Amino acid sequence: MKTLIIENIDLKKIGELMTVSRLFCDTPDIIALGDGEIPGSFGRAWQSAATVSANLVVPITQLIQQEGYEVILMSVSTLGTGLAGPLSAALSAPVITEVTAIHPDMVVDRPVYGGKAIIKYKIESTPSLLTIRRKYFEPEALAGTTPSVPLETGDEKVTLVSEKIEQTEGIPLEDAAVIVSGGRGMGDPENFALLQEMADLLNGAVGASRGAVDEGWASPTRQIGQTGKIVAPDVYFAVGISGASQHLAGIANSKCVVGINKDEEANIFNRARFGIVSDYKKIVPLLTQAIREDR
Amino acid sequence: MHIAVLAKVVPDYEVPSMDFELSNGRAHERFSRMMGLYDENAIETGIQLKDKTGSSLTLISYGLDSDVQFLRKGVAMGADKLVLVKGTSDDAAVIAQNIKQAVEHLGDVDLILAGQQSADMDRGVVPGILAQMLGAAFVPQVGYIESAADQWKVSQMTATGRRELEFNGLGVLSITSIPENVPRIPAVRAIFGAKKKPVVKLDGIDQGKMALAEISVEIPKIESVCEFIDAEDPNEAVKTLLSRLTEERYI
Lengths: 295, 251
Ligand SMILES: Cc1cc2nc3c(=O)[nH]c(=O)nc-3n(C[C@H](O)[C@H](O)[C@H](O)COP(=O)(O)OP(=O)(O)OC[C@H]3O[C@@H](n4cnc5c(N)ncnc54)[C@H](O)[C@@H]3O)c2cc1C
Ligand SMILES: Nc1ncnc2c1ncn2[C@@H]1O[C@H](COP(=O)(O)O)[C@@H](O)[C@H]1O
Description:
- The complex is a heterodimer.
- Chain A is of the alpha/beta class.
- Chain A has seven helices and 18 strands.
- In chain A, the strands form four sheets. In chain A, strands 6-10-5-1-2-4-12 form a seven-stranded parallel sheet, sandwiched between helices. Chain A has a five-stranded parallel sheet with strand order 15-14-16-17-18.
- In chain A, helix 2 (57-67) packs across helix 3.
- The N and C termini of chain A lie far apart (52 Å).
- By secondary structure, chain B is of the alpha/beta class.
- In chain B, a hairpin with a 2-residue loop joins strand 9 (137-148) and strand 10.
- Chain B is globular.
- At the A-B interface, helix 3, strand 6, strand 8, strand 9 and strand 13 of A face helix 3, helix 4, strand 9, strand 10 and strand 11 of B.
């Protein structure tokens, strides 16, 4: 099937979509957004520096119609989410977001009810649009680069005035082998420093639940879960996190979850491999000390 | 100025996985119903904007007659009225089509706010479809909104930070959660007052479904394998945890 990837220039995201595209075609085409060379080997490539989705709907719709693409792949991201709905309406095309598995004959899975159930859909017409949840498909290692022609974008509907990238030290959450996450049970922002100390010793990163983000204790960029980051570390420490299904949706592919919660009934223990029922203030400092001594 | 906020009533999204049950491929009807979590963030954002700009605010929902009692919470938070389009479809294009009907019925809407995701279908796609149907700009993951002259200035919360965007004309914004839009708890007086606010009901249309066939809905099996580590002696507990993690080669 004639397949188009639409993605920002990002090795991992393009790599994951490349893996997915192999289920539909030999070599996909790409619309790559942002500056820099396009990694990987594509049939044809278009590129634009514009990354605001509202300004890309018209040119991308035209390109899909002109070239007759049958499957359009994006990842779940600001860009993919910004494009999925408008492109679906503009093309009268079926759209499925947050796809986690793809089966033969255009059957795909996506979670609903915060991951408590999985819906299977069969896509019955082309073109069709899919946004793929991160961390569900191994990224293909991309070799070489593909030269591109410009994607003409025309008038801007929405103007990008400025962009602030948060400076985070250490390993990005998505790549971390160890994540220490705090929830509303942390009680106050200062105590997040305890988690940072522990994460640093383990060469890991600090995450948060929506509960902690809502309290203002952690930046929204640290949120893990279905509407935050999807992560897949070797070890995920959930400290003072109840384990709501929407949070667990973000750690489904973690190898080992450790729950530290004072409530033995907390749902996190239904997902955890190891559980400690206690006030985290008694455990985390000792754990940090023991890790330090272990090194 | 007239702000519309889209709100959907959904089955209790806090039910833990272990207790979750389906009937006819949807959450069991025994679960209580409530307004979507992100929709409440959108209403809170709308009310703050209404108060700053002296606008009016209308809630729009596509759903059941019986949803009105749950939507009243949004009215009690500060909306002026409610438009319910009656229907039962879960198809995102059909839902958007019905909401468009409500927007056209109101006639003078300047800005539309929605939740980032509904708390049942979890897909984040209805607002973008609606925007395209209305010829409006769609901006997802918005945290902050300001109105300046004839422009909207909005902050989009991305995975890596924050973007400041500007546009004029009609826009559909999906709202994400930030500490500043944690939904207010309506006062008792407001809850009573909400019962007197107008509710407009429109008949829905069931056309324009997407070319998707729903094959099955299933609950994934969860195997609980938690090994509880005795925390009586915290020093012992952390040593046990570390040695178990090392034994099983996780760290
Ligand atoms: C559509 C949708 C999307 C969502 N997306 C996300 C998402 O991406 N990420 C996310 O996290 N949530 C998400 N949520 C919200 C989710 O449903 C929960 O509300 C949220 O995860 C709760 O955060 P929490 O566990 O920190 O807080 P709480 O549920 O309040 O839990 C706090 C926990 O801390 C424990 N505790 C308290 N004190 C201590 C102590 N001293 N020591 C140890 N333990 C203690 C308590 O026992 C409790 O279990 C979403 C919801 C919806 C509807
Ligand atoms: N039936 C509905 N009635 C009103 N608003 C809705 C409805 N369905 C979706 N929405 C809005 O669109 C947002 C995203 O929904 P969804 O695309 O289903 O995740 C929700 O948070 C609501 O604000």
